[in-house]
Amino acid sequence: MATIHFNKEGFNKAITSGGITMVDFWASWCGPCRMLAPVIDDLANKYEGKAVIGKVNVDDEQALAMQYGVMSIPTVIFFKDGKELDRKVGVMPAEAYTAILDANI
């Protein structure tokens, strides 16, 4: 499954759907974000049916970035039942994300 690109409505629906949702806050002009993109895409495929994995473009959805205090990108936030569970700022190895996903599926 391809990574989902969220707008505000889709984002709110995803994080409140139950289960775990992983959201990458990014921008097209951000070099580290482009480095992280293949990792996010691989995780979306690996966790299909187990977790919702998507992205929010901070240029398009500035209000969402502000609402969640995203000051640096990439920032990956994990949600469960509509509440923030954890966050990782900067580029991390895939294991940093899979550890949180695996512990909360």
Automatic annotation (TrEMBL):
Domain of life: Bacteria
Keywords noted in UniProt: Disulfide bond, Electron transport, Redox-active center, Transport
Ranges where the Thioredoxin domain occurs: 1-105
Gene3D superfamilies xrefs: Glutaredoxin (3.40.30.10)
InterPro entries to which the protein is assigned, alphabetical: Thioredoxin (IPR005746), Thioredoxin-like_sf (IPR036249), Thioredoxin_CS (IPR017937), Thioredoxin_domain (IPR013766)
NCBIfam families named in the record: thioredoxin (TIGR01068)
Family: Belongs to the thioredoxin family.
Name the record gives this protein: Thioredoxin
Lineage: Bacteria, Bacillati, Bacillota, Clostridia, Eubacteriales
Recorded name of the encoding gene: trxA
